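TL;DR need structure tokens for one chain.
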Amino acid sequence: MRKNLLFWLSMVIILIVSCQKELSFESSNSPAEGTLQIEISGDCLPKTVNGTYTPGTVLNPTTNNIVIQVGVTKTGSYTISTDTVNGYYFRATGNFTSLGNTNVTLRGNGTPFAAGVNNFTVSFDSTYCDIQVTVASAATFTLAGAPNACTGATVQGAYAVGVALTAANTATINVDVTTVGSYTITTTFQGMTFSNSGVFTSTGPQQVILQGTGTPTTTGANVVPITAGTSTCAFTVTVSSAGAGTLGGAPSACAPINVQGTYTVGTALDATNKVDVQVNVTTAGVFSISTNTIDGFSFAFSGNLSTTGPQTVTLLGTGNPVNAGVQTFTVTLGASTCTFPVTVAATAVIDYFPRTVNSNWSYETNDVATDSLLEKVINNTVTAGGNPYQTFMESLDVSQAPPFDTSGYYRKSGNDYSQWSNLVDYLYFDAEQWQSWVFLKDNQPVGTTWYSSTGGYSGSIGGTAVVVRVKYTILQKDVPVSVTSSTGTVNYPNTIVVEEKYELQNGPVWLPLDTVFGYYVNYYSRNIGLIKLDFYDGSGGSSPTDVIKLRRKEIY
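>> reply
TL;DR here they are.
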């Protein structure tokens, strides 16, 4: 819905002279042709960043990389690269052999100089997109129990000589963080490696789960030393003799088989995702049973089977499915193999601002039942910047002629929701200026902040040149919110709460306007839309001065 904002802004901006920056890019060409997939904000789609980035640490191309998507229109060789920022960059070369959308991994090179958020521009065939990488200073922390046994350490999984470790083999240690930042903890002992890296975002005691890899070489109690900085402690891994057996149904379909849990594209597997297989144990001992990894997920078991004969073993699932359809996994136990299918469903519909034709919402203001607003989506799209936007209409009184007026144009791209607006209506610019910007992101954590435009929008109000922008911050993510209106109380689960504030540029500084002119807090509920809007007038009170609440809705 349209928000009439800052009509008194002209009284302040006459004191401000704003400036603009120009950006220039250099592109590269290659025989292949296509376009980078780009969100309306200009960010790459998708924008996956892998690895940990620390000042002074050389990037590992295998783990430090970014993933972007290209819409290939002509096959051939390609080079896709970023600019160099803060001492490092990303690059990929290869050949596109088919048309359509293709994910490309750009591997990191160089060494970051300093901590901070670095914005990279990816270029390919005259198209560009942005991706952000966070470089965190190295954390300072100590290992609990140093210099003796690691206090509270726990070892998961079973270990046997000659049996490769799986995802079930982990060691959890305790650390005490004094300075937040990135970390890398790793140790190798008797053929086993335990490691993890990441970023500590808070200080104090916390746990780190180290993933085990490799193959044990020595039976008995293996005292594994681990060092982080100048701190050292040790934990014990008991390595036994390997068991032996065959899989039920080998070498064909596993029998019997019991696949449990629901599998959906984009939804990480949890404790409910598991598979029961039969193992005919011929020699009791430690077993490591695992599947191959297909489309981002797999299954594994690591444990001791102390009796011989047929028995059921549960393989736990890990990972995140990336494609819908039936995937056939191969289970391996020594030289014995069998297969089983898993059906992955398409991604469930998730939409925090529905735009389907005929959907409509009724709102009331400040708990006054007769002060109503009706919003609806009509069968009309407009195109801006090559993107289609759905038309919304609104009415304060449907008995008026004409009963409805245009209230806005909206679209969704990936996980971003955008509006196309005339700044004359939205920010009271003197002359028409249509702009599009992201007002909601449904896949970002609490605390995420973004802007309608990093550089703001240039125009004039009352004849005075200004540069303004909108600042959005996620306050809560997927929380239940109760709304009480004249029709009763309704609880809306999975609600994202977004703070909306306004800023005015004064030279290199952006001046916040919320303390003088107020700000908004918007509530968007999954598959429902805007359920509540709070306006704070900037007087410093803890309660909103105006509240719009959803009273009734129909989503088509």
